Amino acid sequence: MTRESRDIIFKKYMVPFMILPGDAHEKEITVDDHATFCKKLDVTKTSNAYLDTYFPEGKGNNPDRKKQTEKMRERIYRNYYQEFWTGMHLVMFGANRYRAFQLELEYLKHHIVKPYEVSVRKAMQRVDVLLTYLPFFPPRTVRSERPMDKEWAAFKVTKQVDDKIKRDIQYNMLPTSFRDSIDVWETDYETMDHSSFLLCLEKLEIKDAKESKERDDNKEKLKRKSVGASTGKSHPTDNRKNNKDRNNKRNRRDNQKTNNSGKARFCNMCKMSGAPSFVYEMHNAKDCKKKKQYENLLSGGAGNRDKANKEYKSFEKKMMKNVRSEFKKHQATNKKRGKNNSDDDSVNSDGTNTSY
Fold it and tell me: What local confidence, expressed as pLDDT, does residue 19 receive?
């Protein structure tokens, strides 16, 4: 893009009106490199024909030739960058290059919207950023023509967006509820300075957030009522804490073993002495048969507690042995009773034996 621009400037200005020392490759050397192009433009002597063409009012006035030469170089550089941007605009905007500025400005005025989750302050900052891009758009021209000095000069004025257009962009991007509130302000929003306007918008934002939260809470309440009416039950989140408390109470109750009076039985003495759970949950401490014995053992050191543990283990073994022995005796008794009953059934009421 820059080489094409240098080639246009070289043909338009440097060849017809400037004296260019060098050989036949002068053009290629000058156009290929930007630094060489600028150096060549600065050191090349400007012809009188060049100055007389663009500054006819200074014709024949030799003392002003130096100033005229400096002005001409500035004009050539300005045209060089204009040609560069003309090529860039053609690539960027294509067929709409000639009206791209107007399309972008209309878009900013009527089609941008503040996102819901973006604060008013950040939205205003975004508008400022978008407006800084406008000076890089092309000037308005006829579609088939490249912009000339006249179009660039006019665009230098129109590309600066004034405060009134900027305020319209800010107003139009706001939600409808914000604009309705602004329309009833006593002070005209167009005449307010930026700080005051932004402060009022932030107050509206706080109010809108509060009303939005209230609406959401009311919707949630209605949803809970509708769920309760359709199922006959309250919303799950309503009784979550009560359900948790009831479950905890039920677990504690189930884990407690009680006597016939409904009170839990627990012998702390036996538990500390190392007895199994089925032993210390079968009686209370006041009913412990070995209370005095284990009080003496537990009052001593670690050796006495070990002795208590061993004694309980021994007691447990003896207890299990006795239980097995009683169980065997009970089985033998039941077996014997069953045999006697079968013998009695074999005799009739008249004393005769019917067994075979």
Answer: 53
